[in-house]
Write a structure and sequence with these properties.
heterodimer; A: 111 residues; mainly beta; five-stranded antiparallel beta sheet; globular; B: 114 residues; 0% helix
Chain lengths: 111, 114
């Protein structure tokens, strides 16, 4: 079955870059996603990447995809205290099935 | 994208009671999804709600415990029946409206069962 793995915790200093990693097992995934969940809130879609791309950049966010190793990462440049949240990696192997989520990485930003 | 409103946003319930969560979407959607997020855990899909037909439940979830209604293309309800403390979770409604299969979520309903 599909499985998505993430490390549970990451702590960085304000102004540094954060890199959150994710591995997945389903080689037929067509899209991979990153979501952010702030305390007491639902999940907010940050970005997604199509499986035939290696990289996608959106302002401070950079997504890298290594399809051969089934490894996805999210880099946040110049991390701010407002970036403190749980970040979920998710995959979808077709357009009509709901997503499979990892357990989430809790990012703590130290001022 | 879609704007999704859920209510209640949180509630404290007594063991043995039932609670219905409402989900309203600002556009018509074919499928709505209900997820559960237990404390410190990831999201688990409970069921898919289709308008005009019975909901499709995932393994481990049954209609008697989590009855779902889908009366139209913008609204759904999830009932958590005969609650126990193990049902304490965040329940999230979501829809899939983007071309990349992305899901959009409501703010969630945080249930605490005593």
């Amino acid at each position: 079955g599909e499985d998505v793995e993430q490390s549970l915790f990451l702590s960085v200093r304000e102004g540094d870059s954060s890199v959150i990693n994710c591995t997945y097992t389903d080689s037929s995934s067509t899209y991979l996603y990153w979501y952010k969940q702030e305390p007491g809130a639902g999940l907010q879609l940050l970005t997604y990447i199509f499986s035939n791309m290696d990289m996608k950049q959106d302002q401070r966010l950079t997504v890298l995809l290594n399809k051969k190793d089934k490894h996805l990462s999210l880099r946040i440049a110049d991390t701010q205290t407002g970036d403190s949240a749980i970040y979920f990696c998710a995959e979808n192997n077709s357009g009509n099935t709901p997503l499979v989520f990892g357990k989430g990485t809790r990012l703590s930003v130290i001022a | 994208s879609a704007v999704i409103s859920q209510k209640p946003s949180r509630d404290i319930c007594q063991r043995g009671t039932s609670l219905t969560i409402q989900c309203q979407v600002d556009s018509q959607v074919t499928m709505m999804f209900w997820y559960r997020q237990q404390p410190g855990q990831s999201l688990t899909l409970i069921a898919t709600a289709n308008q005009g037909s019975e909901a499709t439940y995932e393994s481990g979830f049954v209609i008697d415990k989590f009855p779902i209604s889908r009366p139209n293309l913008t609204f759904s309800t999830l009932t958590v029946s005969n609650m126990s403390p193990e049902d304490s979770s965040i329940y999230l409604c979501s829809v899939q409206t983007g071309g990349a299969g992305e899901l959009f979520f409501g703010e969630g309903s945080r249930l605490t069962v005593l």
